[in-house]
C-alpha cells in the first residue's frame, strides 16, 4: 500500500504543478490580450497536425534529449550545471573546426571525428567549473553562468573571424556564419519530407547509455551516492570530488555533442543563435523528466512541442515566441517547489496519517 | 589626463545598475537567501521602466513624471517577483539555485514577450538626462567625474551609506542579519525568520527592478533582449566576495565597471584588440575573483542557502 | 514583548506527548515545580529531556497534554508566547549570533528598544547593566560573541534571558562545556537566584544534581521513570536509577593482548571545525578481541577522534597505528581497505544515503569490489542475494529490500549500517553512539552482535554517553574529557558513579 500511496501522492502533486504553470501562463497571456485557449491549443496541437511539423518537433527533441541526459548525470551527482549553453557552443566550434580543417576525409572518418571533437569541446568547457568546484569550492552555479557568456562571445568571434564563410566576405554581406560544411559530415535525413536526421539514433543510444551508466555500473552508483548523500558517500570511501569533476565532464561532453549533432544534422553550418536556448530548455527537460532517461525522452518531446508551438503562436495568435521561456521558468519554479514538498518526510507523514484515518487502513502496511 | 577622466566618468554610471542590484542582493543574502533570478527581475524592471514613458509619450504635467512612474513601477513589480521567489524558496523550501534560474527564465521571457507585444522593435526613449550639479561640476577633474551624472547615480551612491545604516543600525537590519547568521537563535527570541526573509526578498527585488530600469532609462535608453547581459548574476557573485558589506560591494562594483570603461576606452583609442575578447573580460574576472576569495560564511550569513524549519532537529 | 512582572509560583506539565517521524520523543510526561524550587531533569541522550524543554519554550507544539503556569492553562504558539509568560531558556547550544556583539544579541530580543528607524542601544546597555549588577553577572557588551570563551558565552545567555524578563529559568546541560571552577561558580550563582526565580535544569552530572536541585525527575526513552526529592537519595541511587538495570550479559575472560594492539593512538591532536584543538594529546590503545568503551559527555572530542581515525579529518600531530601501520591522514578509502569498520554518529546523514534503497546501501563501501561488480557492471543478483541474506540475518523490519533506507525506523536504519559493516568482515570496529535514540529491543540486538564480534577476535572502540551500554559491553573503560583520556577503569572495578565522576572532569574520587 505504501508504494501505491507514494505513486498517487507524486502524480497528484505533479498534476497540480502543471496546472499551476498553465494558470500563471494564462495570466501573462491575458495581460497581452491574447486568446488564452487559442494560444494553448496552437502550442499543443498545431505542431502535431502534419508530418513536417511532427518532424520539426522531433529534431528539436534530439538536442534537448542529449543535453538533458548530460544534465541529469550532473544533477544526480550533486553538481548543478547551468552551463550547457556554453558547452554546446564550444562543441559546435570544435566540430565545425574539424569539418573545415579536413574536408577531404571520407564520411566514415570525418563524421565520428567531428562528433567526438564536439564532445571534447563541451567536455573541456565542463571540466573548468568542475575543477573549480572540487579544488577551490567555487560555486558551480556562478562559474557555469559566467562561462556561458564567455563562450557566447568566443563563438561570435569565431563566426565573424576565423570561421567566417569566405563567400560572405566576397559578397560583402557579412552574415556571421561558417561556410556550408562538406557532405561528409552530414547526418542523413531519415524520413523523406521531414528534416528528421540520424541524430535520433544517437539520442536514443545515449539515453540507453546513461541509464546503463547510472544504474548498472559501479561508477554510476558512486556518482549517484555522491549526489544523494554526500556525507555518507565520503564516509563510505567514495571520492566525491572526483565524481563531481567526472559528472561535469560528462555533462559538458553531452552538451558539446548535442551541438555537433545540431550542426551535422540540421543546419550543416555554424550559424548565429544556433544554441537557441537549448542549454536552458535542457534544464527544464531534465527536471520535468525526473532526471531519468525514461522520463527525459517524453519530456523532450513535450518541450520540443512547446518550442515549435510557440514559434507558431507568433503567426497564428499574435503571441511572441518568448512565451516559451515564460512557461519554462514557471514550470521550473513549480517543479522544484513541489519536489521539496514531496521530499518532506514530516508533511508526507502527516498526509499519510490523515489519508489512513480517512480510508481506515492500518498505518504500518 | 583626459583619458583617465573619461574612464572614471564613464565607470561611475556604469556601476549603478550593478551596485543597485548588489545592494538588493546583499539584503537577500544577509537574510539567508540567494536569488539567482535577479537577472530576470532586472529584465522586467528594464522593460517596465521604459514602458511608461514610451507609452505615455510627451505631455507630462511635470517633465520627468513618466520616467519616475516607470521607475516606481519597476520597483513595485520587482518586489512582487521577489515575494514570488520567497513563496518557492521560503514557504516551499525549494532549492534556491535552480529556483533562481527558473525565476530568471520567467523574468526574461515575460519581459521579452510583453516588450514585443506592447512596444516592439528598437524603440528608444528619451530617458533621463544628466543633471550636473551647479558649481561642483565645474571643478576640474572631480567635476566631470563625480558631479555630472544623472540623478539616479547620485541617488545610488547616497543609497550606499543608507543601506549600511539600515543593515547595522536599525532593528530590521538586526533581524535580517540574525536570520541569516543563526536563524535558530533569532527564532528562539521570537523573531519570525521566514517573514524577515520575505521582507528582504521584497527589498532585494525592488532594488533589482530599479537597477534594470536604470539600464533602460539612463544607460542605453531602450530595451533589448540582451540589455542585462549577465549583470544580475554578477551582482550575486559580487555580494559573495564583497563579504556582504556595503562598502566592499561598492568597491567591487566600481572595479568591474572601471574595467568595462577601460575596455571601451582602449577600443576607442583604436588599439587592435578583438571586440569579443574585451567583452569577455568582466565575466572572466568574476570567475578569477571567485576562485581566489575565501568566502567565509562565518563572517556573514552562516545559514545562507538553507531553508529554515523550526520543527527539524538541526 | 512585555515581561511577566509577577512571580511564577508554580509550573506544571501534564501528560505531554510528542512524536517525530519514527520516534516517540515524549510519552505522557508530567512534572511540577514550585516557588523558588530547583528541579533536575535527568536522563541519557535521546531520553526526551531537550524535546520537553523545547515544548515548554514554545519551539515545538505537543501532540497531547497541557502546561499550567500559576494554575492557569497556557498554550505557547511560538517562543514569543513563552517569553511573555516569563519563561527563559539557556540552550545547550547557545542561541547567540557569533558575528554580532553581546549588545546586539541582547537587543535582538529586547523589543522595547526598537523604533522603526533606530535601535536604542543605550537603553539596552542600561538594562544589561541593571541585570549584571543585580545578579552579579559581568559581561562586556561590546565584545563579539565569537571572541568569548564558552563560559563567558553562557553568562551572556543568562544575562540575555534575564534581560528579556525571565521569571523562570530552564537550563539545558549548563555545565557541559565548563571547567570545574566555572561549574562551581555557576552553581553558587544559581543557588542565589532561587530567591527570585524557579529553575529547571537538565543534566546527567551527579555532582550538580546533588548540589543544586531540590527535586529530581528521571526520564528514560521518553517516559518518567522516577520522581522524588534529591535530599532523600544518595548519588549511587540516582546513578542506578539513571542507568537502569545493572544486568550484564555473560562474557568470556578478558583477552590477552599478545604483541601489538590492533589500534594504538599516540599523542593525537585534531582540530575541530571552529579551529581549536578538540583532541589534545590523546593516548589510547585497543587490542584485538577487546571492547574499549570511551565514555564522556558529547562535545569533548569524540566526533573529531572518530573522524580522524577514519580518515575524515586532518591530524595535527600524533599517530594512529592500525595493526602497526600509521593510518593518520590517509584517505577514507585507504582506511576502509585496511580493514576498519565504522558505525558513525549520525546514522541518517553519515551512515546511509536516505533516498537509496536498503540493498543499495548495503554495497555503499563495496560497489567496485569484485564481489558486487564485474568489470564495472553491477552484479544485480548478487546484490539482491546479499540484501536478502542480511535482512533476514539482522532481522530488519521493512516491506522489502527496495524500500528507501531513510523511511525505516531508527533501529532498523542502525541495523542496516551494522549489517553492512559486520558483513564486510572488518578487523576492527569504531562504533559511535550506536544505540542513541533506539528502543530497548534494537539496542539489545546491536549489543549482542557487538559482543559476538568481540568473541571472534575483532577489536571494538565503543564511543558512547550511555553508562549502561559502556558497563554492559566494555572490557576496559576510558573516559574522555576535553580531548584527553582523563582516566581508565577495568571492567571489574568500574561502576556508573566512578565513571560519572570522571566524565564531569574530576580526576580524584572526592566524596560526593
From TrEMBL, chain C:
Keywords, comma-separated and alphabetical: ATP-binding, Hydrolase, Nucleotide-binding
Top enzyme class: hydrolase
EC number(s) reported in the record: 3.6.3.17
One Pfam family linked to the record: ABC_tran
Protein name, as recorded: Ribose import ATP-binding protein RbsA
DNA-binding listed as a keyword: no
ABC transporter domain location: 11-246, 263-507
Gene that encodes it: rbsA_9
GO MF, one annotated term: ATP hydrolysis activity
Lineage of source species: unclassified sequences, metagenomes, ecological metagenomes
